[in-house]
Design goal:
11 helices, 6 strands, 294 residues, disordered C terminus, six-stranded mixed β-sheet, single chain, alpha/beta
């Protein structure tokens, strides 16, 4: 007599939203000479930065509660270990009662890009000007990091994030909506979006930085994919530097059913394979494909 054991993998329950937040205005944003006397990770918020963080908390509360129309929701926070991000978290947290907070975790991998030694302000200004000429993604600061280096550690963080989701560490009941809030830095947040949505280096270079305490809402669609186009308008996406193709991608993620991406939106291959373009045979071929995806 033989017996078999079967193990069923729990169904993955995804967070309703992943919200990326840049810290409030810091003393370094107000006066770059602050870095010559204070280590980057110890730079504090300004009084305006504190006010910005409190306002962001109210704004995020309104998003996750759907303006008070949704009652069963929770939030979980990840925060960079820098003083300005931790202070931003404290002020954002004032908008949330204890019973709505699942927890918070300091996550070193979403820290600021390492810019090397700031002690000589004029030298750092010259290095940043060089970065503008040679591209923000691959340029590495002397004794510091490139955006590509940040990409690698953010990728590692995402693996841990998926493990937390799969192990159901972030859930609080079958009917409760979980919202993840990641309080980090401008470049790190842009790299997070690049990794998540599989944007190219060229597309990354288009992106504008977040404003202080500005946040981006990635919301889960009916198809099980995340999109920026559910909460944010096309005008907002354009102002952030997303190209028309990137915006179409976000709209597709917000509304389309899961399927073969290349079949549904063949235009996504055009930037890699010129011979696939239909424009030579049909001058409006690309437009027609884009309209089908929108």
């Amino acid at each position: 007599m033989s017996s078999t054991c079967s193990f069923s993998r729990p169904v993955r329950r995804l967070p309703k939203r992943i919200i990326l937040v840049r810290h409030g205005e810091s003393q370094g944003n107000l006066d770059s000479s602050a870095y010559t006397t204070t280590p980057d990770y110890k730079i504090p918020l300004t009084p305006l930065g504190v006010a910005q963080a409190r306002a962001a908390g109210e704004g995020i509360h309104g998003v996750v509660s759907d303006g008070g129309r949704t009652a069963d929701w929770k939030v979980y926070f990840y925060v960079s270990p820098y003083a300005r991000t931790r202070a931003t978290l404290r002020e954002i947290g004032r908008a949330f009662p204890k019973e709505k907070i699942i927890g918070a975790r300091e996550e070193c991998r979403v820290r600021e890009q390492d810019f090397g030694n700031f002690q000589v302000e004029e030298r750092m200004m010259a290095v940043k000007e060089t970065r503008q000429r040679f591209g923000r993604f691959f340029f590495r600061f002397p004794d510091g990091e490139s955006a590509a280096d940040v990409f690698d550690r953010v990728s590692s963080f995402m693996e841990s994030l998926w493990r937390d989701i799969d192990m159901r560490r972030l859930e609080q009941g079958e009917n409760s909506e979980t919202n993840l809030v990641i309080i980090s830095h401008g470049l790190t947040s842009r790299v997070f979006l690049m990794k998540w949505f599989k944007w190219t280096v060229e597309q990354f270079e288009r992106l504008n930085n977040f404003g202080n305490c500005e946040f981006r809402v990635m919301q889960l669609s009916q198809s099980g994919d995340y999109s920026l186009a559910i909460h944010h308008t096309k005008t907002e996406l354009e102002s952030w530097g997303l190209s028309p193709e990137m915006i179409i991608d976000q709209q597709w993620r917000a509304a389309a059913n899961r399927g073969n991406w290349n079949d549904d939106c063949a235009w996504c291959l055009f930037s890699f394979f010129d011979h696939l373009k239909t424009s030579e045979e049909n001058g409006e071929g690309e437009i027609e494909l884009a309209e089908e995806c929108a």
